[in-house]
Design a protein that fits this description.
This protein is an alpha/beta fold. The chain has helices spanning 2-28, 35-43, 49-52, 64-71, 101-108, 150-164, 185-193, 238-245, 249-257, 268-277, 308-315, 342-353, and strands at residues 87-93, 115-120, 169-176, 180-181, 235-237, 287-288, 320-322, 325-327, 333-334. The strands form three sheets. Strands 2-1-3-5 form a four-stranded mixed β-sheet, with helices on both faces. The chain has a three-stranded mixed β-sheet with strand order 4-9-6. Strands 7-8 form a two-stranded antiparallel ribbon. Mean pLDDT is 90; it is low at 23-43.
């Protein structure tokens, strides 16, 4: 009987302690950590590779403000704690299809690790490149683009920003669906990488199509003597690409005061880069275009125009300066070509273009 009473007292005591403990935990708001939380926290290991390795797809859910903000971040140390192979970013600004994709595929073949590709199309275009294509999953989130308006430069900044997310991209080339390469990959890579300058047209042009497009409302940020004009198609280094995507001052001025007949894609980048970085510009483009017939658009070349003589003529179109020395190689790309030109270009490319 006494044994039963003893165990009954122990049970009541244990129950009382449990009840008091529960109330104390509630009163003092004492929280316990689940073991799984501690384990998962300890297991989260962040490596440098997770920051520097570009994703297999360039698609993301960021809006333009978020993208430009992220792309403007840059390491302040010039020494890399890993083996960095500088790459060329080929940025295609197109409405939709890339009719010269087979030619570009041949151009890129065998040079993996030295280039990256970004394609800006109209938002509703759905590419159908096979998984083996260099263009597979290289389409970036886009917005509608109107010729001669700020949306064109916004698309170019969008391409630059996406390309800047890859820390290994050092040079940035803007191309269209109507562009072709005039030389082999190795030649173009060496030409660009060994240049002391970036290739952006930047001319102080008199007349109605140059200074005549300037508005005094651009001041005080942009003065008349700082107004420049250049080709839309450029090649720039990483430093200048960063300067373009982080800009908020010149962007507002050009968006508000450079409207047709002021074509912003001919003036925005050439002017804003020339103001602080004129000494870094070759002040010419690497893309050959035929404006000899006049009008708002350049000549388009089709199947019947493509001959060995024609391509060699473009390659040796004029003399220019390369690293302050006279050179006969001035153009690495050319436009504007009709899709019908693909067949003869593929036939002639091994002999004339070098790939």
């Amino acid at each position: 009987m006494r044994v039963l009473q003893f165990f009954l007292m122990l049970f009541v005591l244990a129950l009382g302690i449990s009840i008091v403990s529960m109330h104390m935990i509630k009163y003092l708001k004492i929280q316990t950590l689940a073991p799984t939380t501690l384990i998962s926290t300890c297991d989260e290991i962040t490596t440098l590779e997770s920051f520097i390795k570009p994703p297999s797809s360039v698609w993301h859910s960021m809006n333009d403000s978020e993208l430009l903000w992220l792309a403007s971040m840059e390491p302040r140390r010039y020494e890399y704690p890993f083996k960095r192979v500088p790459k060329m970013a080929f940025m295609f600004l197109t409405k939709g299809p890339l009719p010269f994709a087979p030619l570009w595929e041949r151009f890129f073949k065998g040079h993996e690790g030295f280039y990256s590709i970004y394609v800006h199309t109209l938002p509703d275009y759905k590419p159908d490149f096979p998984t083996s294509s260099v263009f597979y999953r290289r389409q970036i989130p886009s917005q509608p683009v109107a010729w001669g308006e700020m949306s064109m430069c916004e698309a170019e900044r969008r391409l630059l920003a996406n390309a800047l997310l890859d820390i290994s991209n050092e040079w940035f080339v803007l191309l269209s669906e109507a562009c072709i390469p005039l030389r082999g990959f190795d030649f173009i890579y060496n030409y660009v990488s060994k240049s002391r300058y970036s290739f952006m047209g930047s001319a102080d042009e008199d007349g109605p199509y140059g200074r005549g497009r300037y508005s005094y409302a651009m001041g005080p940020e942009v003065q008349l003597n700082q107004w420049r004009k250049g080709s839309q198609w450029f090649e720039i280094n990483r430093e200048l690409a960063l300067y373009i995507v982080e800009d908020i001052i010149y962007y507002q001025k050009f968006k508000e005061f450079c409207r047709p007949p002021c074509y912003v894609d001919e003036h925005y980048f050439p002017t804003m880069l020339s103001i602080p970085y004129s000494h870094l510009l070759a002040k010419r483009t690497l893309t050959w275009t035929d404006w000899s017939k006049g009008g708002p658009h350049p000549t388009t070349f089709g199947k019947s125009d493509i001959t060995e003589m024609f391509l060699k003529m473009i390659q040796e179109a004029q003399s220019c300066l390369y690293n302050d020395q006279k050179s006969q190689v001035c153009y690495l790309f050319a436009r504007k070509f009709d899709p019908s030109a693909l067949e003869p270009l593929l036939k002639l490319s091994p002999k004339v273009l070098g790939f």
